[in-house]
Design goal:
6-stranded mixed sheet; 19% strand; Purple Acid Phosphatase, chain A, domain 2; single chain; 388 residues; elongated; 2 domains; alpha/beta
């Protein structure tokens, strides 16, 4: 609960800062027009009123109770997401400009003053340039990433087993069916023994869930397609639909269930769980001991990577997770990755271990919130099991 209150307080603080920045931008525009063309002041106020109404509508549409309440997809495409993107980039730009003004001393030399002003303008433009690059280029820069998970006592028949993992697809306005078809084709090129999907097929009610399942059904592997569901299936109230329609297309979503696979005489027990809510951390993997097979290697499919300690206590050998998008927007500073996800979980991206349990967290395919990625390109993950 303390984490939730801290997150809410941070969101309110950022919203207040964004509102202040918008007010200052309108004030600056009014001062310039008043000096140069005062007759356009009434038009400015009318435009400002429309602009602010659009931003307020965007903020309201981004409230979880509204966003996941079944609003039309076009309202997210043309209002909620663009408004959020503008608030983030304009506020970031204003903050960078203010910092630049504080660290550059006033210069009375006109030439130096022009250079400083040009530098400040370039710095202020950086958030907009980054948003454009992340939205137009990196967001669709799908890559295949390989990772090894080392498991003590792994049978020789399972050593080198290839599992292709897709996660956080978020098919909708900002990820097309053509994009997903390309991703599935790239996944098939890895020639996996098993294909898994670890949740968040869509973002909200009204998104094309059936089309997503149809594309995922084209995944090819020796042992078929298994998966677990994410928080956005729950928010969209689509867990039952995804399970039923997935089964009809050859995709089995494990909801507190297991699937026993045998490769070369060695058993691999795949367990899957529904989204484990951060609001109920004490209930992570409740009754999970029933999912562990003592005579097999146990692999957990979970959308939320925070369950790693609980999985280790229960005796799982490995886990595959998503949820974090690898931070989605990540900045490297002094060899440290800075992103919003790091404030919410210690398991943002890559390989982790807890005792004898190894876990891989993928960056996933799609986006949520801002339709862009920076420093965290989308990926198809090819995970290999390796003997210690």
């Amino acid at each position: 609960m303390d984490v939730l209150w801290s997150r809410t307080a941070l969101e309110l603080l950022l919203l207040a800062l964004s509102a202040y920045v918008q007010a200052r931008l309108i004030q600056a525009a009014a001062e310039r027009i008043r000096r140069r063309a005062p007759r356009f002041i009434p038009a400015l106020w009318a435009a400002a009123a429309l602009w602010c109404s659009w931003l307020v509508a965007g903020v309201v549409l981004n409230l979880p109770s509204v966003y996941y309440g079944g609003v039309p997809a076009w309202s997210r495409t043309f209002c909620a997401v663009p408004a959020f993107l503008w608030l983030v980039t304009s506020t970031g730009s204003a903050c960078l400009w203010w910092i630049w003004r504080q660290i550059t001393e006033p210069r009375f030399d006109p030439e130096k003053r022009r250079l400083l002003r040009a530098g400040g303008s370039a710095l202020a433009a950086a958030p907009f340039a980054a948003a454009g690059f992340g939205g137009l280029i990196v967001r669709r820069d799908f890559r295949t990433v390989e990772a090894d998970l080392t498991i003590p006592g792994l049978p020789k028949a399972l050593d080198g087993l290839r599992i292709v993992q897709l996660s956080d697809i978020h098919l909708g306005p900002f990820l097309s069916e053509d994009d997903l078809a390309w991703v599935v084709g790239a996944a098939n090129e890895t020639q996996p023994h098993l294909a898994v999907v670890t949740g968040d097929l869509i973002s909200a009610p009204g998104d094309p869930l059936d089309q997503c399942l149809q594309q995922l059904a084209a995944l090819k592997s020796d042992a078929g397609i298994l998966g677990c569901l994410g928080n956005h299936e729950r928010y969209a109230r689509a867990e039952a639909h995804a399970t039923r329609e997935g089964q009809a297309r050859g995709i089995r979503f494990l909801r507190g269930e297991t699937e026993r696979l045998v490769f070369g005489g060695a058993a691999l027990n795949i367990a899957g769980v529904d989204y484990q809510s951060v609001r109920q951390r004490r209930l992570y993997l409740k009754n999970g001991e029933k999912l562990v097979a003592p005579d097999a290697v146990n692999l957990l499919l979970t959308h939320n990577p925070d369950v790693l300690p609980a999985a280790a206590r229960l005796g799982f050998d490995a886990a595959l997770a998503g949820h974090t998008h690898g931070g989605q927007v990540t900045v490297e500073i002094l060899s440290q990755s800075l992103n919003v996800a790091r404030f919410m979980t210690p398991y943002v991206y890559g390989r982790y271990s807890e005792g004898r349990t190894a876990m891989f967290v993928t960056r996933g395919i799609g986006t949520i919130g801002l339709p862009l990625r920076l420093g965290a390109p989308p990926e198809i993950a090819l995970v290999r099991l390796r003997a210690a």
